[in-house]
Amino acid sequence: MPVTYALMGIVNVTPDSFSDGEAFLDADAAVAHGRRLAAEGADILDVGGESTRPGAAPVAVAEELERVVPVVERLAGTVRLSIDTMKAEVAAAALDAGADIVNDVTALRHSPEMAALIADRDADCCLMHMRGDPQTMQDRPRYTDVVDDVRAFLEERLAHAVAAGIAERRVWLDPGIGFGKTVAHNLELLRRLDELAAIGRPLVIGTSRKGFLGRITGSPAADRLAGTIATNVMALERGATVFRVHDVAAVGEALQVAAATVGPAGARDAGTAHEESR
Ligand code: HH2
Questions:
Q1: Which of 91, 100, 241, 253, CA to CA, is 20 to 30 A from 6?
Q2: What is the mean pLDDT of residues 183-201?
Q3: Quick check: is 181 in a domain?
Q4: Burial (0-12, 13-18, 19+ Cβ within 10 Å), 151
């Protein structure tokens, strides 16, 4: 069986993202960055206007709309676009502007209208595990068994989405690396990722430049590409199918080789791309 996967390039239109805050706050810079990531091989661009790093300040709806909508409008037609937001108003405006995936790090728990919106628009969505919220999530996180707990959470959120009218085939799941987890929790989730892939939905993984890599290697955020590659390659081998990364070209090349090694003819897509965007 060939290994199939999709590369999701990160476009942060924020002043305070942990690794590239301020770099692409200007719409022109964000659009140019998105186009560059698409040219490097991103299958999806994930546009976000609110940082979720530990302790990040929440952003008002109007401000978030102002950051992301012009960028989504101008990137529409390059590759598939996802909107990284927990707010239904922002998701609706981004879907109107050309996005067709909603990446909600609260897994439909923040905005009461989010599930109905995704169902109505028949959009794909990524539901991610997080303990608490970005203000509190790193406050001594504890689990009975981190993989069992995350799996139970994701299964419950999948059932909730389906009960709200979202087609099961539209739902992707994500263990939320770095969201309310210690270094040991993140590593155990990566080590046992196959147990989450067994749920049977596309599995998104986001380790790119995250703090646990720096805790292991001592490298600052801008210098964690090697750790990012190591963890994404391992995640591919354990069944992850969508890779959310800042460094599309380098991680893409590593995954190409990893996929060719794991399966006879590595192919992109993860069954997640719309025909017209190929
Ligand atoms: N991580 C971040 C943001 N959104 N979405 C999903 N599905 N999975 C993730 O792991 C994930 C995510 C945090 O990374 P980044 O966007 O680089 O930083 P910030 O939140 O500071 O903007």
A1: 91
A2: 98
A3: yes
A4: buried
Chain segment 163-182, per-residue pLDDT in tens: 999 999 999 999 999 999 99
Counting ligand 1 atoms within 8 A of each CB, the residue from 14, 83, 86, 105 with the most, and so the one to mutate, is 105
Amino acid identity for residue 80 in this structure:
R
Give the model confidence (pLDDT) of 110-140 as tens digits.
999 999 999 999 999 999 999 988 788 778 8
Kindly report whether the global pTM for this prediction surpasses the value 0.85: yes
Number of structural domains, the chain?
A: 1
Nearest to 274 by CA among 3, 1, 6, 68: 6
With respect to residue 106, please indicate whether it lies within any of the assigned structural domains.
Answer: yes
CATH number at residue 253: 3.20.20.20
Other CB atoms within 10 Å distance of the CB of residue 7: 25
Catalytic residue status for 181? no
CA distance 266 to 184: 31
User: Do residues 24 and 105 make contact, with C-beta atoms less than 8 angstroms apart?
Assistant: no
- Residues 6+ positions from 251 with CB-CB distance below 8 Å: 7, 208, 225, 228, 229, 232, 243, 245
Residue 202 belongs to domain spanning: 4-268
Secondary-structure percent of the chain, ordered helix, strand, coil, rounded to 5: 45, 15, 40
| 277 located within any domain | no
Catalytic residue among 121, 181, 210, 238: 210
